[in-house]
Amino acid sequence: MEYLKPMIDEETLKARIQELAVQINNDYKGKNPILICILKGAIYFFTDLTKNINIDCEFDFMRISSYEGEKSTGQIEIKIDLDRNVEGRDLIIVEDIIDTGKSLSGLIKHLEKKKPNSIKLCVLLDKPDRREVHDINPDYTGFIIPNEFVVGYGLDYDEKYRNIPCVNCIIKEKDDDLDNNNINIKSLVNKNNLH
Ligand code: IMP
Ligand code: MG
Question: Active site includes 99?
Fold first, then answer.
């Protein structure tokens, strides 16, 4: 049995994401950046963030893979690439989480070859304790979180739980100390009428 323990609720997510959008609006005033949503994990973050962006901007989508289950393979594969020329453009990568940093480091190297004017990194969650690539730092960070595996709000565990509307840690066994905070995944899904 797997249990979810809420870590960041919907209201807190919304408020912090609005703050990030304000920063981006200020930093890119008069520019026309391309916001790149990294599928699949960043979908909710991307939509909530971009609804609060009020400068000229464009959208694009990429899909990379580097992760199997809970372990990083350290390899990055570009599954869906940009399908247009971004030379001279300002790119903002919008990603769900930075963990070891391997995926984003590989992605940035890949995008640099396309000769954009700038590349900035916007992540919802950062787990700095897990970092293995140290020369990579997000320009915009939603929340710094402890070294725990999280799901929901787009993030998955083996493709499950992306549809849960807030960020949760996933625990394999019910922890007596946490008792009432432990939510059985089935009851959470039912409660939100998601299935
Ligand atoms: P990194 O290359 O180790 O930084 O891994 C980044 C990718 O791993 C993210 O885009 C996620 O897809 C996945 N990932 C890392 N930590 C978590 C987590 O706690 N929950 C869900 N996915 C995660
Ligand atoms: Mg991801």
Answer: yes
